[in-house]
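---------- Forwarded message ----------

FYI, see the DUF2085 domain-containing protein record below. Original note from H. follows.
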Amino acid sequence: MTRVAFSEELQVNWVSLIADFLLVGMVFGPPIAPFLAASGVSLLPGIADIIYFMGNHVCPQPDMGLDLAPPFIMAVCMRCYGTVTGLLITRLLYGVTGGKGFYWLNQYGWGGAALASVLMMAYPLELAAQIFGLWSFNNYLVTPFGLITGLAWGLFTMPILHRWQRGGTQILVMSDRLYDFRE
């Protein structure tokens, strides 16, 4: 008796998995932190403290976060959250297109890297303009600058982080007989 079994080779792209895990944390962490802190339920304020700790170390103005659950505010400002939103949009776009399209900047080599770098400067230039007094902080003003930065960053890096990995099909032949091909 001979059996043939087909098994699809499963390959895990660990870089993609870790990047998606971090993106989920960046998308959901900052807005739920104030609700966790306000809950007063056992360990939840401790989790909120961890999120606030991370927000304080990545956001230049965490005290400008939205007031979601008074007196607790979002863990990052809207400029940073705009950046995260841009990354989320590009991740979803990559999931739909698989990296096929003229807008994925990594396919243009150094030119794409230069364009992405120029667009990513929207965030620090807006922050510098605010620091030098050209305008004051306004969530409606800073969010698009963060969004442009996140889109540029995502349009360059998503194809690098999430390359499609296709597994091949293996054919396994199993037999209960021992064949001897000696002459």
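H. also flagged this: The chain has one domain: 2-174.
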